[in-house]
Amino acid sequence: IEFIRITMLRSLWTLGSQLVLRCKDFRVFHLLFPLERDCVEVHASLTRLSRPESYSELYCLSINPNTNQEEREKSWSLVLPSQDYQRMGLPNNLWVATAANSEYKMCDSYPAQLFVSRWASPAVLMGSSRFRSRGRLPVLSYFHQDTLAAVCRCSQPLSGFSGRSEEDEQMVTAVMKANPGSDFIYVVDTRPRLNAMANRAAGKGYESEDHYGNIKLHFSGIDNIHVMRSSQQRILDVGEQRTPSMSDFLLGLENSGWLKHIKAVLDAGVFIAKAIADEGVSVLVHCSDGWDRTAQACSVASVLLEPYYRTMKGLMVLIEKDWVSFGHKFSHRYGHLDGDPREVSPVLDQFLEVLWQLAQQFPCAFQFNERFLLDLRTLAYSCQDGTFLGNSEKERRSLRLQERSFSVWSRLWRDREKYWNPLYRAEQSQTQGVLRPNTTPYCFKMWKGLYSPAETPAPPAQTPVDFLSSVREGSQQLEQQLANQQEVAAGGPAPLGSRQGIQHTKTRPLYLKPRLHRHITASSPIGPSL
Question: Which one of the record's GO molecular function terms can you name (predicted)?
């Protein structure tokens, strides 16, 4: 539950108190209580339950699942960043693994395993780390095996107006040397230029082209987490309008600025992808601290560059590597614990929406469907598994999450059949190579599946993708029924839960306490993740 509000209802038709619940999946519930006392009691209980003070109160750590250790370990080994580095041909004669952060002493928000340029000495690594915000020095994120160009990530330098670091300048030069096909690199500062300049007054800022002679600066203009949080709230208000006029809807969409921000994130990824694939130039990406906008830009570029990341397993690996292991602050951004609400921001939401926008232009390029993106977002805030708990790899290890919970990826992979995009064709030209999206404003749409979860009673029109998915699911069910019938005809046992070889699916009803049951009116069915 993201927000709870009590309102008093007094009219000819209703008399009582209304409890309004706004959930993190953007559904809104209205609970009507004849007695104000009952409403206040439920409000107090839900407020406390929705704001846990410690990780031990979260769902995945407060239960003791009846499973063995082997099954839990298997869930955590399904998706590993090390597998992705091996897939990219690392280590090689350009990029090597370093143990400098094996105990998280150099940077406590970076993973223990890092790949750096072969030309960067241990002294250069430490000096660069001291000169970068939060110690987040330039390290490898993605390596393009054809052009030998690389996407690297870091945080802003602590340069101020005139500060400099010889080791950090050598570190950036080392990144350039790791690409034999280019004599310079792009430094992509994902922030608006004015914001980056303002940070200089606080002793931070961005690289000077006078001090770093081998760079070309590029500003992407992605706004900060506070602007994004406010913008998302405004587009939610648009989605909750019941009977808006066309002018009200378009005005609300424009005033939210949301699609403008989505375009900025995609534009950053497009610039990086073109530099890597077309120019063969390496790119160093950073924002302020290097765990929000940097993660967005690097991962969007990777999806554009690499068909593997457009598969289900590939996207899991990408998020595990560029978001989870590199210290995106999931607990802060999704408000897992009772903390500063100003730390909450839809950073991952924007990345998932960029993927959805790309899928609208390239419907055959992605192995997964919209449901996969929506469920992935739900699992990021529901705390059903341990993957998205904590703000860094170090913090997750201190919580012993691999011993106390399961990985979210095993849950998604187990249900992969329902996430399959029936239009996906791995052998077609659209799914191979670099995606080159059209980023003109008219190509961006409002993601109705996310921001309008409560539909009107009339069923929405079925899309071709939904139709093909239902046909595919029905075909699989018929094939299973046929196989079961053939087994029974051959004298084999009927499958459990079936009669004459036909599978039956049961649904579990939702039971509410009598006091609450008669007072609930909701704009959509109650789900498990209030």
Answer: phosphatidylinositol-3-phosphate phosphatase activity
Q: What is the largest CA-CA distance in the chain?
A: 84
Instruction: Centre a 10 Å sphere on the Cβ of residue 43 and count the other Cβ atoms it contains.
Output: 19
User: Are 260 and 228 in contact, with CB atoms under 8 Å apart?
Assistant: no
Q: Please, are residues 263 and 444 in contact by the beta-carbon 8 Å criterion?
A: yes
DSSP classification of residue 420 = B
User: Which 8-state DSSP code applies to residue 192?
Assistant: -
Tell me how far apart the alpha carbons of residues 523 and 284 are, in angstroms, rounded to a whole number.
46
- How far is C-alpha 275 from the chain's CA centre? 24
Q: DSSP assignment of 61-89, as one string? A: HHS--S--HHHHHHHHTSS-HHHHHHHTT
Give the start-to-end residue ranges of the domains of the chain. 1-50+520-530, 88-305
Known binding-site residue numbers: 224-225, 287-293
Tokens at 443, concatenated: 């190509």
Amino acid at residue number 525:
P
What is the number of other CB atoms lying within 10 angstroms of the CB of residue 74?
13
Identify the burial level of 517 via C-beta atoms within 10 angstroms of its C-beta, where 0-12 means exposed, 13-18 middle and 19 or more buried. exposed
Strand partners, 187: 217, 284
Annotated binding site for substrate: 224-225, 287-293
Chain segment 316-354, per-residue pLDDT in tens: 999 999 999 999 999 999 999 998 999 999 999 999 999
Q: Give me the count of residues in the chain.
A: 530
Residue-level pLDDT at 69: 83
Burial of 429 (0-12, 13-18, 19+ CB in 10 A): exposed
Which ranges constitute the DSSP H helices of 201-257? 225-239, 246-256
Helix (H) or strand (E) holding 152: strand 150-153
User: Which residue bears the tokens 């499973």?
Assistant: 67
392, pLDDT greater than 70:
yes
Q: Cα–Cα distance between 163 and 470 in angstroms, integer?
A: 60
Q: What average pLDDT does this structure show over 58-73?
A: 81
The domain at 88-305 falls in which architecture?
Alpha-Beta Complex (3.90)
Structure tokens at 96: 């090597």
What percent of the chain clears pLDDT 90, i.e. is strictly above it?
Answer: 66
**Could you identify the residue written with the tokens 């036909």?**
502
Give the active site residues: 287
User: Each residue of 124-164: pLDDT tens digit?
Assistant: 999 999 999 999 999 999 999 999 999 999 999 998 877 89
- What is the value of pTM for the model shown? 0.85
Tell me the pairing of strands 215-219 and 185-189. Answer: parallel
Residue scoring higher pLDDT (216 or 500): 216
Cβ proximity of 311 and 319 under 8 Å:
no
Distance, C-alpha 162 to centroid of its chain: 36
In the chain, the amino acid numbered 259 is L
Band of the pLDDT at 238, cuts 50, 70, 90?
A: confident
Among residues 421, 426, 419, the alpha carbon closest in space to that of 464 is found at 421
**φ, ψ of residue 62 in degrees (nearest 5):** -100, 0
